[in-house]
């Protein structure tokens, strides 16, 4: 988003952007056109950020981190009269508490997996031992995308409960847990913009959560994504709109939690239709890096965000290009557990057209160095998914730092000489997954 907003300054001054300030920023944002990093105010000092915004005469605040959104940073800026693209603290509870989110889905008849919430270890263990289906154990609070455990046995499920509720491996996020049915199917990410009344969804993407190839290893915040998903047809998107998105936004309105911002719905396409896995109340990472590059050059992201804060999303034009994007994350050695930092990053020249998005990077003594688990991501946009995947990996070949790690199979299940006329490994019985890119859904501007 910071990249797109900054590009807007250079290419379309009619959007009214004079400068982009990033808190705290990284080595990538430091190099953007008419953009500046501001690390003098802590990103969790919300009153201080309001003062900074006033001093800089900021006309729009866009919030990225989940913790800030869930803490209710939007309210600080709203009370000061500064437009802020983020939901209220009340609406953000959909992400801040998985227990709340599951109960919300139950109240509003939104399809999801069978579940129970627990804060008592013995009660949770009894439940796991009594039910006759495979489960997923989730820490209810924010855990940086790592609070989900998929046990392969009852023993592992009980151990996961002990680790979360007693050993507090996820800290305060594990004060309660959700024990839910493990769904089978294809997982997709749906990002929907909302101004409280009108909505517009980006093309669906598919993230790769596990750290190693073949979906092995620990869960991460995401190791790579491609957009759009070739197997999601227009009828499937309509089902998601009718069964999930509409009742979600309506339910929020009915509960006095009107949603303004970006709602990220994790959806599993099962043999009995789409079901919600979880909600995030902000843009996803790495999904955003494959969605934003698909916006048509006439679409001003800052204009769209500002329209959302004004209840005018229906008055702006949002267009996407008929192409595919692939985004591959490059992580530090050890991620998602303890990881090294301070490694010098070298980025060489390449004849391939791609975009490098910085994440955990900083500048030390004039050199770009690693400063996080997920260090950067390489994205590419092409007419076909196969070409987008190839270009993204070509871009990674230009990146070098000690201990770098990345998955080598992003989107590979759909990349073949048949150009994606291929059914998925886990077929969704109620849908046909055999289609060409021409059958992908069109994404018009909001009505």
UniProtKB/TrEMBL annotation:
<dbReference type="Pfam" id="PF01071">
    <property type="entry name" value="GARS_A"/>
</dbReference>
<dbReference type="Pfam" id="PF02843">
    <property type="entry name" value="GARS_C"/>
</dbReference>
<dbReference type="GO" id="GO:0004641">
    <property type="term" value="F:phosphoribosylformylglycinamidine cyclo-ligase activity"/>
</dbReference>
<dbReference type="InterPro" id="IPR037123">
    <property type="entry name" value="PRibGlycinamide_synth_C_sf"/>
</dbReference>
<dbReference type="InterPro" id="IPR011761">
    <property type="entry name" value="ATP-grasp"/>
</dbReference>
<dbReference type="InterPro" id="IPR011054">
    <property type="entry name" value="Rudment_hybrid_motif"/>
</dbReference>
<dbReference type="InterPro" id="IPR020562">
    <property type="entry name" value="PRibGlycinamide_synth_N"/>
</dbReference>
<keyword id="KW-0547">Nucleotide-binding</keyword>
<dbReference type="GO" id="GO:0009113">
    <property type="term" value="P:purine nucleobase biosynthetic process"/>
</dbReference>
<comment type="pathway">
    <text>Purine metabolism; IMP biosynthesis via de novo pathway; N(1)-(5-phospho-D-ribosyl)glycinamide from 5-phospho-alpha-D-ribose 1-diphosphate: step 2/2.</text>
</comment>
<dbReference type="InterPro" id="IPR000115">
    <property type="entry name" value="PRibGlycinamide_synth"/>
</dbReference>
<feature type="domain" description="ATP-grasp">
    <location>
        <begin position="102"/>
        <end position="310"/>
    </location>
</feature>
<keyword id="KW-0658">Purine biosynthesis</keyword>
<dbReference type="InterPro" id="IPR016185">
    <property type="entry name" value="PreATP-grasp_dom_sf"/>
</dbReference>
<dbReference type="InterPro" id="IPR020560">
    <property type="entry name" value="PRibGlycinamide_synth_C-dom"/>
</dbReference>
<dbReference type="InterPro" id="IPR020561">
    <property type="entry name" value="PRibGlycinamid_synth_ATP-grasp"/>
</dbReference>
<comment type="similarity">
    <text>Belongs to the GARS family.</text>
</comment>
<dbReference type="GO" id="GO:0006189">
    <property type="term" value="P:'de novo' IMP biosynthetic process"/>
</dbReference>
<keyword id="KW-0067">ATP-binding</keyword>
<dbReference type="Pfam" id="PF02844">
    <property type="entry name" value="GARS_N"/>
</dbReference>
<dbReference type="GO" id="GO:0046872">
    <property type="term" value="F:metal ion binding"/>
</dbReference>
<protein>
    <recommendedName>
        <fullName>phosphoribosylamine--glycine ligase</fullName>
        <ecNumber>6.3.4.13</ecNumber>
    </recommendedName>
</protein>
<keyword id="KW-0436">Ligase</keyword>
<dbReference type="GO" id="GO:0004637">
    <property type="term" value="F:phosphoribosylamine-glycine ligase activity"/>
</dbReference>
<dbReference type="GO" id="GO:0005524">
    <property type="term" value="F:ATP binding"/>
</dbReference>
<dbReference type="InterPro" id="IPR020559">
    <property type="entry name" value="PRibGlycinamide_synth_CS"/>
</dbReference>
<dbReference type="InterPro" id="IPR013815">
    <property type="entry name" value="ATP_grasp_subdomain_1"/>
</dbReference>
């Amino acid at each position: 988003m910071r990249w797109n907003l900054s590009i807007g300054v250079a290419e379309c001054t009619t959007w009214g952007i004079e400068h982009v300030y990033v808190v705290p920023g990284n080595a990538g944002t430091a190099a953007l056109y008419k953009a500046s990093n501001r690390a003098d105010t802590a990103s969790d000092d919300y009153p201080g950020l309001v003062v900074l915004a006033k001093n800089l005469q900021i006309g729009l605040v866009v919030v990225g981190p989940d913790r800030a959104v869930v803490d209710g940073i939007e309210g600080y800026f709203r009370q000061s009269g500064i437009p802020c693209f983020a939901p209220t603290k009340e609406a953000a509870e959909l992400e801040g508490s998985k227990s709340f989110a599951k109960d919300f889905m139950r109240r509003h008849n939104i399809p999801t997996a069978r579940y129970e919430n627990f804060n008592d270890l013995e009660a949770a263990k009894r439940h796991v031992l009594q039910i006759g289906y495979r489960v997923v154990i989730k820490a209810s609070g924010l855990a940086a995308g790592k609070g989900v455990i998929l046990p392969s046995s009852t023993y592992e499920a009980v151990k996961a409960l002990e680790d979360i509720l007693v050993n507090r491996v996820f800290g305060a996020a594990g004060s309660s847990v959700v024990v839910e049915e493990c769904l089978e199917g294809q997982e997709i990410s749906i990002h929907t913009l909302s101004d409280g009344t009108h909505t517009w969804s980006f093309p669906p993407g598919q993230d790769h959560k596990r750290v190693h190839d073949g979906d092995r290893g620990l869960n991460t915040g995401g190791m790579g994504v491609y957009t759009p998903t070739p197997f999601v047809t227009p009828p499937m998107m309509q089902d998601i709109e009718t069964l999930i998105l509409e009742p979600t936004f309506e339910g929020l309105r009915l509960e006095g939690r009107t949603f303004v911002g970006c709602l990220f719905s994790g959806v599993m396409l099962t043999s009995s239709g789409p079901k919600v896995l979880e909600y995030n109340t902000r843009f996803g990472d790495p999904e955003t890096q494959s969605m934003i590059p698909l916006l048509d050059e006439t679409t001003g992201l800052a204009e769209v965000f500002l329209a959302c804060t004004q209840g005018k999303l229906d008055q702006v034009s949002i267009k996407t290009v008929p192409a595919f994007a692939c985004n591959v994350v490059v992580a530090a050695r050890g991620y998602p557990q303890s990881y090294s930092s301070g490694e010098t990053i070298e980025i060489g020249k390449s004849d391939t057209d791609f975009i490098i998005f910085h994440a955990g990077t900083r500048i030390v003594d004039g050199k770009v160095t690693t400063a996080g688990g997920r260090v950067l991501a390489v994205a590419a946009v092409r007419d076909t998914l196969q070409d987008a995947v190839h270009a993204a990996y070509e871009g990674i070949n230009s990146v070098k730092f000690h201990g770098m790690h990345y998955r080598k199979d992003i989107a590979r299940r759909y990349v073949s000489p048949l150009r994606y006329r291929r059914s998925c490994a886990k077929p969704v019985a109620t849908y046909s997954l055999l289609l060409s890119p021409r059958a992908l859904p069109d994404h018009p501007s909001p009505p």
